[in-house]
Design brief:
Elements lengths: L15 E3 L5 H6 L2 H33 L11 H5 L16 E6 L2 H8 L5 E5 L8 H16 L3 E4 L4 E4 L6 E5 L6 E7 L2 E4 H20 L7 E4 L5 H18 L7 E6 L2 H4 L2 H7 L4 E6 L1 H11 L19 H16 L4 E6 L8 H21 L3 E4 L5 H12 L19 H5 L8 H19 L5 E3 L2 E3 L1 H16 L3 E2 L6 E2 L2 H19 L1 H6 L2 H13 L7 H6 L14
Parallel strand pairs: 2-3, 2-13, 3-6, 6-9, 9-10, 10-11, 11-12, 12-13
Antiparallel strand pairs: 1-7, 4-5, 7-8, 14-15, 16-17
Helix pairs in contact: 2-6, 2-7, 5-6, 7-9, 10-16, 12-13, 15-16, 15-17, 15-19, 16-19, 17-19
């Protein structure tokens, strides 16, 4: 079929140029009125967003010159005053177990039917944001909110539909830094998160509030924030959306992921900016580890050990979790725990039970610390997680008012920045390389949520792998363990990459290896690890490989 000029089949408002493929289903989402709403958001907030991103770059320059992140003296009054966020809506009170996953059709149905209290549908780290994935995700979510979603799995010859009782839907848009390069507004790519939020809100706010939110909603998760000024922009976006829709102020609610090191010093300030729209904070622990390395990329005295050794019992991680709980409960909102990434090991019942026991221990630590709920990557983990939280909390929906964690008020900047203990090994370097390449290969072929070595991995794991390799290479780290005295350098890394590519080919099989984008992924990952300047995000570079413009260019490489 021949295409005309860009966007010739989409009815677009002035200033909008849609460069993604036309699809009749997508056109039901990309209506002129929905696009007008996205355009209003883009025009009103783009300069605020650009300023916030410039301030991030300034902060990075300071850290690279030796400064450390810390509590801002200018906002001490916000931290010290007594104030609370708006009361938690009844529809979002019980969040003991939340399941997360990409906005893929079968995933959405299974997650909503999983028995979890909440499903976080992800446009961010669990999604490869191709035009097809992003737009089909919007179609899928609209069908889910309308209650009409179904999926016919031809391989299993099974039809999936929603149960009567489903999880509450939260949606995670992309971070501020990611563009949507298939939609241009006034000659520049739209901001990815404004596209994700704007289209979802426009089409679903009314039905969501009626069927799921009991008069509140929609509900969101907000990623990758580094400073309260970014929360302030989101708050303004929410107010604008409420005004346009004619719904009460404070209807929209959001949980912010505390997944960057600078943000841990801004938790009170972030909640303060979102006071009317907040339903808490979440420990995004994998991204938090990635952010620790990235923040201290120029600090050779702050090198991390192998990532498998950086658990929640390390002082800087425990302090982060404890302070988050204390801050949230003091302000009257949820303190959500971290991800259990394990997936069932069907072929090995003993290993499977050991993995489940690790999950139970982790969740017991969280609920005893005071977390109000937790994350699971797979439906099979939900019963075990739910049992741990129910045993501690019985019939209470949360611990906001019963576990205040006053003892965590004394946590210091030093606690939050303490360098974790542990060794750096060749196996750590190899695992980083193997996982990083396989994740990027999957991402390039459309999958952002990837099962690897009995864990469900998303972009955060690949980011840790990448920045840790980069830092070890930059500082010529000496590995310990079996190969004492070996220093990580370009030559050693080149050999590791070659050997791990051979191992990946053996593990996945020659045919899949040949058809997959493993060689392209290897080039991208290796370039990122060996680059003189550390890229802020792996996905920003890799995104250029999945942008597909129609019809004037076949691809943008």
């Amino acid at each position: 079929m021949e295409f005309g000029t860009y966007g010739s089949y989409y009815d677009v408002p002035e200033g909008v140029d849609i460069r993604g493929r036309y699809d009749a289903e997508f056109a039901k989402i990309l209506t002129k009125d929905a696009l007008k709403f996205v355009v209003e958001l883009q025009r009103e907030f783009r300069n605020h967003i650009k300023y916030a991103l410039e301030r991030r770059r300034e902060a990075k320059r300071r850290y690279n010159e030796g400064a450390l992140p810390g509590f801002d003296p200018a906002t001490r009054y916000i931290r010290e005053q007594e104030w609370v966020c708006a009361p938690v809506p009844p529809a979002a009170a019980d969040r003991k177990v939340e399941i997360t996953g990409p906005v893929e059709r079968k995933m959405i149905i299974n997650a909503l039917n999983s028995g979890a209290k909440v499903f976080m549908a992800d446009f961010e780290d669990a999604l490869s944001p191709s035009w097809e994935n992003v737009m089909r995700g919007q179609v899928n979510l609209k069908d889910a909110v309308d209650g009409t979603i179904s999926f016919h799995d031809k391989v299993r010859n099974r039809v999936y539909k929603l149960n009567d009782d489903t999880a509450k839907l939260f949606v995670r848009p992309r971070g501020w830094h990611l563009p949507e390069a298939h939609i241009f507004i006034d000659g520049e790519p739209a901001t990815g998160c404004l596209v994700d939020f704007g289209l979802f809100f426009y089409h679903n706010h009314s039905e969501f509030r009626r069927t799921q939110g009991a008069g509140f909603g929609p509900f969101f998760y907000l990623p990758k924030m580094e400073h309260s000024r970014e929360a302030k922009i989101w708050n303004s976006v929410f107010e604008k959306a409420e005004n346009v829709a004619g719904i009460e102020r404070g209807s929209i609610r959001a949980t912010v992921l505390i997944e960057t090191l600078p943000a841990v010093f801004q938790m009170n300030e972030i909640l303060y900016e979102l006071k009317e729209h907040s339903v808490g904070l979440n420990c995004g622990r994998w991204d938090y580890i990635f952010s620790y390395v990235k923040t201290f990329q120029a600090h050779p005295d702050r090198l991390l050990p192998d990532r498998v050794q950086v658990g929640m019992t390390q002082n800087f991680m425990k302090s982060y979790s404890d302070l988050l709980i204390r801050t949230c409960h003091r302000r009257g909102v949820h303190a959500m725990g971290g991800m259990a990434a394990q997936i069932p090991i069907k072929e090995d019942p003993v290993a499977n039970e050991l993995a489940l026991e690790l999950v139970r221990k982790d969740k017991l630590r969280e609920v005893n610390a005071g977390h109000d709920g937790t994350w699971a990557a797979h439906p099979a983990l939900i019963p075990a997680c739910m049992e741990v939280f129910n045993n501690k909390m019985s019939n209470a929906p949360n611990q906001i008012h019963t576990n205040r964690r006053e003892d965590a008020a004394n946590i210091t900047e030093q606690d939050l920045l303490q360098v974790p203990r542990g060794g750096r090994t060749m196996e750590g370097l190899r695992l980083n390389t193997r996982v990083g390449i396989q994740y990027v290969a999957a991402w390039l072929t459309g999958s952002g949520s990837v099962p690897l070595y009995n864990l469900m991995e998303d972009a955060a794991t690949a980011e840790i792998s990448r920045v840790q390799n980069w830092q070890w290479l930059k500082y010529g780290v000496e590995v310990n363990g079996d190969e004492v005295g070996v220093k990580v350098n370009r030559e050693l890394f080149g050999r590791v990459v070659e050997e791990e590519m051979g191992r990946i080919e053996k593990e996945v099989g020659t045919e899949k290896f040949r058809k997959g984008m493993y060689k392209e992924a290897c080039k991208i990952f290796t370039r990122q690890c060996t680059s003189p300047i550390l890229d802020d995000f792996l996905t920003l570079d890799a995104y250029n490989y999945i942008v597909l413009h129609h019809p004037k260019e076949s691809s943008k490489l």
